[in-house]
């Protein structure tokens, strides 16, 4: 069981990712993390002095929330930090705040059997309620949809005798295996984490999401193992690997091929962003874009572990983001600054990816991922150096990574612009000068 849900266990650190918070706990690191991340981390460390100083500077941080809507008091309650809880309550903490599972701090304390904490919270009017009970209480993974028989996979059908690891994360690994004679990709949760409700909630979230997705440019979900341990999520296996590795080996590619790739990504994202049931990917980057085959003909968008489904009632709806979510190097400024966001955060990430495709190297490679995100949040952008970046694509990238969210085009608009550019360079007899 993880001790807290401020997402200290990132999915990966290779691109400077964070799934809700940065990992720093001292005052000297204050400039390197968001205020929300800092107070949650110090609470987790039971550093009452540091938390008190933060609250003296900004009392509203007492009810700060990570992207799971957990407050510092949730963290303190789960850990049983009595002095920390008193400090937070004295500074106005909402004793009955609910996280995304609708659990209160008292529900967490009861689930963790922190009896002194239970008494303390009750003395301040704490109530015990939640949608699914305390998430520290291990429970079986419930089926995301009633037609479970359609996609539940018998683990005996998965052949790992010649399996190879193709990816690793904090919760497990992704391996190439065989299912009924067909190569597949299997995301396998570590057995030690299969009873952790936080992990199983995230697993269930991703399964629920993938069940609903059907598009040629989205990695195809095949099934999952939810009734036995370890938990496993099975998708199609794409032989071409990921775009990150491909660009690392090939470098910059021609505008013609770049447009083909950009169209594939934009088509998948336009499908995800279709209203009213919008899905914001929140971690769009080359590692999460897969090549269909070894000839690198087409791309598919994958990895929906951080994706967030939103029901849009109004076209201009925005959503509160309280933690840094995604990969720093491709992160939109509003995400880094913990400001409100909408689906245009994916458009910004798309711009950074298209830049990398054309330039042949990641954005701002001279900077560490966090420093690159901070540099971009301060209003700067990567410089165009490659002669292969034709004006139409350069202009599109600049619009997509605009600091003004309103000026960023939708993916449907991006598709139209890319199609026009494709026609333009196809009819131009000089376009072959840019080809690789």
UniProtKB/TrEMBL annotation:
<feature type="binding site">
    <location>
        <position position="187"/>
    </location>
    <ligand>
        <name>ATP</name>
    </ligand>
</feature>
<dbReference type="InterPro" id="IPR051681">
    <property type="entry name" value="Ser/Thr_Kinases-Pseudokinases"/>
</dbReference>
<dbReference type="InterPro" id="IPR036770">
    <property type="entry name" value="Ankyrin_rpt-contain_sf"/>
</dbReference>
<dbReference type="InterPro" id="IPR011009">
    <property type="entry name" value="Kinase-like_dom_sf"/>
</dbReference>
<dbReference type="GO" id="GO:0005737">
    <property type="term" value="C:cytoplasm"/>
</dbReference>
<dbReference type="InterPro" id="IPR017441">
    <property type="entry name" value="Protein_kinase_ATP_BS"/>
</dbReference>
<dbReference type="InterPro" id="IPR002110">
    <property type="entry name" value="Ankyrin_rpt"/>
</dbReference>
<feature type="region of interest" description="Disordered">
    <location>
        <begin position="1"/>
        <end position="30"/>
    </location>
</feature>
<dbReference type="InterPro" id="IPR001245">
    <property type="entry name" value="Ser-Thr/Tyr_kinase_cat_dom"/>
</dbReference>
<keyword id="KW-0808">Transferase</keyword>
<feature type="compositionally biased region" description="Low complexity">
    <location>
        <begin position="15"/>
        <end position="25"/>
    </location>
</feature>
<comment type="similarity">
    <text>Belongs to the protein kinase superfamily. TKL Ser/Thr protein kinase family.</text>
</comment>
<keyword id="KW-0677">Repeat</keyword>
<dbReference type="GO" id="GO:0004674">
    <property type="term" value="F:protein serine/threonine kinase activity"/>
</dbReference>
<keyword id="KW-0723">Serine/threonine-protein kinase</keyword>
<feature type="repeat" description="ANK">
    <location>
        <begin position="68"/>
        <end position="100"/>
    </location>
</feature>
<keyword id="KW-0418">Kinase</keyword>
<dbReference type="Pfam" id="PF07714">
    <property type="entry name" value="PK_Tyr_Ser-Thr"/>
</dbReference>
<keyword id="KW-0067">ATP-binding</keyword>
<protein>
    <recommendedName>
        <fullName>non-specific serine/threonine protein kinase</fullName>
        <ecNumber>2.7.11.1</ecNumber>
    </recommendedName>
</protein>
<dbReference type="InterPro" id="IPR008271">
    <property type="entry name" value="Ser/Thr_kinase_AS"/>
</dbReference>
<feature type="domain" description="Protein kinase">
    <location>
        <begin position="160"/>
        <end position="432"/>
    </location>
</feature>
<dbReference type="Pfam" id="PF12796">
    <property type="entry name" value="Ank_2"/>
</dbReference>
<keyword id="KW-0040">ANK repeat</keyword>
<dbReference type="GO" id="GO:0005524">
    <property type="term" value="F:ATP binding"/>
</dbReference>
<dbReference type="InterPro" id="IPR000719">
    <property type="entry name" value="Prot_kinase_dom"/>
</dbReference>
<keyword id="KW-0547">Nucleotide-binding</keyword>
